[in-house]
Amino acid sequence: MATPCNVVVLISGGGSNLQALMDSIGTGDVPARITAVLSNRADAYGLRRAEQAGIETVVLDHKAYEGREAFDAALIQAIDARGADLVVLAGFMRILSAGFVRHYEGRLLNIHPSLLPKHKGLHTHQRVLEAGEAEHGCSVHFVTEELDGGPLVVQAVIPVRPDDTPESLAQRVHVQEHLIYPLAVRWFAEGRLRLGVAGAELDGEPLPASGRSIRH
């Protein structure tokens, strides 16, 4: 049996995507194991989720470090000490330094609540409604030095309903996040997903610029 892919998950909050990953791996369908969950906030509920699952937790308070580079250096040390093959950002509310991103090039995934490249940054659900758009969704991408700008892996697309609010959109997008993030991790763990010279590749073939699209 192949050695499972060692995954370290970075969180800052509730950890619902972490829970989805734990549940997916727990079925035995994903050849991966979460070796540790790291947070920059000691009160992140996701830490409790990890502890209840018997997964090691580490807290690194960013306020205890002099600047982003010092914090990221400590983060790299903690991640590498746990043998990470893949680093998964699951609601980690820190902008990562260029050095951190380069260190994990091709091994660093993020999920963003919009159909990238649209609506990078925050308040995506409100911005979609204000723009009068017909579709919304979420995107898994490899992380590069450009904020929310790395090569796309997979997107889930949902229709915007006439009666949608930012809250109702957020709820429906969360459901999709919990489906496509474990899928992307599974592809990586199976050796099917990689970051190539020209972008993300699945089964040796370049993915479209928008990634694999799943519509609902």
TrEMBL record:
Pfam families: Formyl_trans_N (PF00551). The record marks 148 as: Raises pKa of active site His. InterPro entries: Formyl_transf_N, Formyl_transf_N_sf, GART, GART_AS. Residues 6-185 form the Formyl transferase N-terminal domain. Pathway: Purine metabolism; IMP biosynthesis via de novo pathway; N(2)-formyl-N(1)-(5-phospho-D-ribosyl)glycinamide from N(1)-(5-phospho-D-ribosyl)glycinamide (10-formyl THF route): step 1/1. N(1)-(5-phospho-beta-D-ribosyl)glycinamide binds at residues 15-17. Catalyzes the transfer of a formyl group from 10-formyltetrahydrofolate to 5-phospho-ribosyl-glycinamide (GAR), producing 5-phospho-ribosyl-N-formylglycinamide (FGAR) and tetrahydrofolate. (6R)-10-formyltetrahydrofolate binds at residues 68, 93-96, 110. One of its GO terms (biological process) is 'de novo' IMP biosynthetic process. Its EC number is 2.1.2.2. Keywords: Purine biosynthesis, Transferase. It catalyses: N(1)-(5-phospho-beta-D-ribosyl)glycinamide + (6R)-10-formyltetrahydrofolate = N(2)-formyl-N(1)-(5-phospho-beta-D-ribosyl)glycinamide + (6S)-5,6,7,8-tetrahydrofolate + H(+). GO terms for molecular function: phosphoribosylglycinamide formyltransferase activity. GO terms for cellular component: cytosol. This is Phosphoribosylglycinamide formyltransferase. Coiled coil: none annotated. It comes from Pseudomonas mangiferae. It comes from the Bacteria. The active site is at residue 112. Belongs to the GART family.
